[in-house]
Amino acid sequence: MLTVALLAAVYVALGVSSFCEEIIQSEMLPAHWRGRLFGFAQSGFLAGDAIGGTVGAVLLSKSGTPGLLLVYAGTSLVTAVVYPAFILRMGAASGSSGSRWSGGWTHIRRAR
Question: Residues 68, 60: contact at Cβ < 8 Å?
């Protein structure tokens, strides 16, 4: 019973965080690009699921678990570097420096 309750709590938390992420993105992206960028993002999730399963199976069979984890670590590192730069660029392009979400990125702006 406890396992079911924890699983339900995890799914509720994932749903809430996904909703909040989309709200934050909609405020940070330029208004004239929002629809296109959200479309790319949703298509990217579908393509990532399809490609990731295929590539993951091939990597696991060819290089084992260490190779799979190495590729995962590399893609995570690239995402950690590129995503903040993308958000800063989109925020600057939209002129949304007054957004309530822009304060979270001030430490990145100061580091440049």
Answer: yes
The residue type at 100: R
| Domain spans in the chain, listed from the N-terminal domain onward | 1-31+64-112
Please say whether the dihedral angle defined by the alpha carbons of residues 10, 13, 19 and 25, taken in this order, is positive or negative. negative
pLDDT digits (tens, 9 = 90+) for 80-91: 999 888 877 776
Residue 78: CB partners within 8 Å, gap ≥ 6?
none
How high does pLDDT run on average in the chain? Answer: 80
Q: Which residue has the tokens 């990125």?
A: 105
Residue 29: DSSP 8-state = S
